[in-house]
Write a structure and sequence with these properties.
The chain is of the alpha+beta class. It has seven helices and four strands. The protein folds into two domains: 55 residues, no CATH class; 117 residues. The protein has a four-stranded antiparallel β-sheet with strand order 1-2-3-4, with helices on one face. Strand 1 and strand 2 form a beta hairpin.
Length: 209
């Protein structure tokens, strides 16, 4: 039986596993905005401990979008471009790589395109979480919570809706086409956001007396 724990040393994360495993997985940060490299994991025989490690690495190294956004902000001083341009690029890029999944009936192509689509959607993560702090710095927790509520609702509904559409239509293409449409709509709407105009609460005016 595998035991799952964490053991850390600078630059390398490891997961404790059973003695039967010859090598323990390692997560090695690659520096800059490139995230990390996961070593010594056989995806054909992945277990709970290795999966936890991969998920932890994924959460800890979602940095590319944030690095890109910060560099644009530093170079241009334009907060709206720094946030919205990176998010829109991620959404449009994801939609572009989902199209071949529908049109090309080839497994390696589908895997590569889905991987790249996921890469582009992850560019969105860092800047979209920065926007609540930009727009409502005094209520960043509330704004982030509402945004996270929207993510949770979408994450709950989308698997059911995907399966329902496949069952009703018999087509796996329709849910992906819908996803492409939603990504493009999101990219168009994100350009209307104004993170450069923070919400300022008007001071209450006390009655004279």
């Amino acid at each position: 039986m595998l035991t799952c724990g964490s053991e850390w040393r600078p630059g390398v994360d490891t997961v404790q596993a059973s003695p039967q495993r010859a090598k323990r997985p390692e997560v090695v940060p690659t520096g800059g905005g490139l995230g990390a490299e996961i070593r010594d994991i056989d995806l054909r025989r992945i277990d709970d401990a290795a999966f936890i490690l991969i998920r932890r690495a994924w959460l800890d190294h979602q940095v590319m979008g944030g690095v890109a956004s910060d560099r644009i902000l530093k170079r241009t001083g334009d907060l709206r471009r720094a946030r919205c341009a990176v998010i829109a690029t991620g959404l449009v890029g994801a939609s572009a790589f989902l199209v071949p999944v529908v049109l090309v009936h080839n497994l390696p192509t589908a895997v590569i395109c889905l991987t790249l689509a996921f890469l582009f959607t992850e560019l969105v993560a860092a800047p979209i979480w920065a926007i609540p702090m930009d727009i409502a710095p005094g209520y960043a927790g509330t704004a982030s919570g509402l945004m996270n509520l929207g993510f949770g609702i979408a994450g709950t509904i989308s698997p059911w809706l995907f399966g329902y559409l496949v069952d009703v239509t018999g087509s796996w293409a329709l849910p992906f086409v819908g996803s492409v449409g939603l990504l493009i709509l999101g990219a168009a709407l994100i350009l209307r956001l104004r993170p450069d105009q923070p919400f300022v609460e008007e001071a209450a005016v006390s009655p004279a007396g």
